[in-house]
Specification:
Layout: E1 26-33, E2 43-45, H1 49-66, H2 70-82, H3 93-101, E3 106-110, E4 116-118, E5 124-128, H4 136-139, H5 141-172, E6 183-185, H6 194-204, E7 210-211, H7 214-223, H8 242-252, H9 256-266, E8 272-275, H10 281-291, H11 293-298, E9 303-307, H12 312-327, E10 329-331, E11 337-339, E12 343-347, H13 353-365, E13 373-377, H14 379-383, E14 384-387, E15 390-393, E16 401-409, E17 415-417, E18 434-439, E19 445-451, H15 453-456, H16 459-464, E20 468-472, E21 475-476, H17 482-490
Helix pairs in contact: 2-3, 5-6, 5-13, 6-7, 10-12, 12-13
Amino acid sequence: MKRNPLLLIDFYKATHHEQYPAGLTKMVSYYTPRMSRLKDNDHVTMFGLQAFIKEYLVEGFNENFFNRPKDEVLAEYKRIMDYTMGVGSYELDKIGDLHDLGYLPITISAIPEGYRTKVGVPQIEITNTHDDFVWLVNTIETLLSCSMWHTQVSAEVGYRYRQIVNKFHAMTCEDSVNPARLLGDFSMRGQQSAESAIKSSAGWCLSFLNTATVPAIMWLEDNYNCDVTKEDVAFGAISTEHSVMCSNFAVDGDEITHVRRLLTEIYPNHSFSMVSDSYDYWNLVNNILPQVKDEIMAHNGCISIRGDSGDPVQVVTDTVFKLWDIFGGTVNSKGYKVLDPHVKAIYGDSITPQRCESIYTILEENGFSIQNVSLGVGSFSMMCLEEGLNLNPYTRDTFGIAVKATYAEDADGSPIMIFKQPKATSWKKSQKGCCAVFRDDEGEFYYVDELDWDTIAQPHNEASNWLKPVFNNGTFIRQYSLQEIRANLHGGKFNGTN
């Protein structure tokens, strides 16, 4: 978005400069997931900060603020504020002073991306590096919050599915089967915007390699030091859709002709999935597949039979059982049946965590490996959690994410402890003073607050504090790669054993 980043704010942020106590020279604020509205999840993945910094604090400020003429920037800001907030309701000089400075005078420290922290633990620390720009610390709150919460929630969604996969993969699959390839993101068309789709899929790709959302790959390359030509960022798949199947049926007068064409003419050397419920799914499975068995077995690839309607649990599991009856397979070292590599089942509609686990449970109980199915997760499960009879949409408030000022200093450098503690809502209580984050013997993050800046800035505290500097005065200090983040999230075992 080609906009002055100082206009990407809530209106009231424009007025806070003159509201702070006179003489403040330092402000310290913390970004914290303060609570969880999910009954079975009280941890949040740290993810999205690097992208926010690059897109807004580096590129956004350089291109749309510092590199523009000062008069132009001030005129733009004044026009918007004069005709909306009113003349004299805000201070314009601070905008000009920042432009004159020529860089963004803040330091950001954060938990390394990919780690999950318990709610209540601060993940990001923001402070000013120039005495005159105390106001800037919390000005970026709105943009930071709206830029990050979705990537974090989506990372948690992916992580939740990955734990289900890991459980059944350990039971039913050979170690050589990559658990990161067993589920995929199918959600782009149902997301709120292209940007939402990109961030959602990027969070998903911390746990899985399969996605239908092409621009998520470029976003990860742009922001997280990865390259699809050199490493596994994400993979797409060849697949038919209903327009393809129905138009061929209209021309051919049957389904089998196109099935044969897909196998022998269009994709003789490529795996692909084929949506198969345009008319009568079970007729295709029970009657057409046996007729093209020879072509399937001679095909140099795998055909994944995709149901797209009906009860997903029943359709997927019954399809696996039927494919075994028709094509057979082998039994792996763990004693579970694996379909002939030429066939597989896939389903990409209405796959919730509960249905995913049900499908895997039925397969396991009937002696089948979960590698026999591929599942796609759509926009519903990316944006809403089903808990019993309740549907809980994902929002910023899913984890009560907020940026709160907790520490300041006056002109003499004297510490001022700031905190919020509303009587009516205990979880909105903020930290008090400066914070340091540590890990216990089990690897759980915890924090210590009521510290002053000099204390956390001591070398021994800097070394042990997990809030590590990543950005200072307009430039990156530390960046993380996608590979590092995946390793942090999965204990170095993103692909299973490595």
